[in-house]
Structures are given as C-alpha cells and as structure tokens.
Amino acid sequence: MCRDVQMTDEKEIKLILQDHEERIKKLEASTDQATNGISQKEHLQSSKEKFKGLNGGINFLMHQGFLNELKSVDEIWAELKRGGYVYPKASVSKLLSVNFVKNKKILNRINEGGVWKYCLRK
User: Topology of 52-120 in CATH?
Assistant: First the structure.
C-alpha cells in the first residue's frame, strides 16, 4: 500500500516537473522573440539609441524608472553622465525645470532644504 502511494507521488511529481519545463520553454521562446535573440545589454543599447540628445537622455532615465523617486539635479546629471549623456549641469537643470516641469508637466519639482528635487508625476 505504501509503495503504491509513493509511486503515485513520484508520477505526480514527474508530471508537475514536465509541465513546469514546458512552461519555462514557452517563456524563454517568447523572451527570445521579444528581443529578437539579442542580449539584454544589446537590447538596452538599441533602446538608448532611440533617445537622442539631452531631452532624450532624460526620457531614457524616466523609461528606466530612475525618476520614480525624488532625485536632485546633481544625481540626475551624474546618472546622465554615467549613461553617456555628457552635458553641462546648468543645461540639465534648465531643461528639467522648463521642459519637463513647466511645459510638458511630466515631472514634479520639490524644494527640500534648499535643493530642488525632481520625480515623475503620479
């Protein structure tokens, strides 16, 4: 009796594992189709090419979720620089306050202790 129960459990486990294996293969196939077989780094690089100039650099940061939390101009400038967008800090500050806060109304600007910080509007 005990041996029959154990064999049934083993069969169920094998079926569950086969089901999981099939689901994983489907997920991997859909991921490969989404990125056309390119690596994640190459995919990020190609998506970055869509964002040109300083305006595109800030859009790229928003796309990556960098501005989901409050960030100072210094933090944004450093992240842009790290991503290959090398512009003067004054240009970054002006673009943020004029284009993204005042005109497009995409970002909020909050003064924390004399430092302006930016984040996405929700």
Answer: Arc Repressor Mutant, subunit A (1.10.10)
Q: How many residues does the chain have?
A: 122
Q: Report residues of the chain scoring pLDDT below 70.
A: 1-7, 31-49
Which conformational region is residue 29 in: left (phi greater than 0), alpha (psi within -120 to 50 degrees), or beta?
A: alpha
pLDDT for position 39: 57
pLDDT for 93 equals 95
| Residue 31: exposure state from Cβ atoms within 10 A (0-12, 13-18, ≥19) | exposed
pTM: 0.60
- If DSSP codes are grouped into helix, strand and coil, which group holds residue 43? helix
What are the domain boundaries of the chain? Answer: 2-37, 52-120
Which pLDDT does position 73 carry in this prediction? Answer: 96
Burial status of residue 77 (CB atoms within 10 A of its CB: 0-12, 13-18, 19 or more): buried
**Residue 32, by phi and psi: left (phi above 0), alpha (psi -120 to 50) or beta?**
alpha
